[in-house]
Predict the 3D structure of the following.
Amino acid sequence: RAMSTLSPGADAPVDPEAGKPPSLVAWLASSGLAVGQDLSHISMPVPFFLDKTMLEMLHQNEMRRVDLLLHAGRRDTPVRRFLGVLEYIFSCCLLEEFGRKPLLSRPGETIASVYRSPDGGCAHFFAESLPLTSPTFANTLWTDDLRLYSCGNITIREKFYGTSIHGVPEGRRTVCLGEESYTMTPPSIAVRLLRGFSELKACITFEAKPLLRGREHQV
């Protein structure tokens, strides 16, 4: 029978999983966190975070959809402008997910940029990370003629759902297109683990005045 032995100093077989740090989800599960718990007050190891900050991600996503708001401002009737704002708000459901790792929050971080669309539209953007307990951001978007002005704040509450992490946005945002004003809350995420599926619920309220015949309408 052929036998092989490892002499002292010879290379031993290497287990690819040996010494590999646990995933964030596994680490959170082993920490005894309850499903749905807010991670804002949990001190997590830095290697678990993505290199990109939350503010950078929000700025990147806003630049991907600002054209929708510029187009909405150029529509010629109140109803078409209203539908354009709807399209802009619901487009956030199609943005890049944060993934299975949380994003860093750096209080005091600011981002300022100018967006120029291919058709000549231009918008200015400014956002700031506020020094609050949960990651909170104030942001403003406007055009030179101020026919379009948007401002608001958003708080991202990252919650643990047993097998994944989800960022749940909270806050309010106001969009002004000339004489029309829209105030809305961001979509919220509801996860039903007991039924074995996840579900995204968008609850958005619009207060537009004057929209039709000078009256206030809510949707």
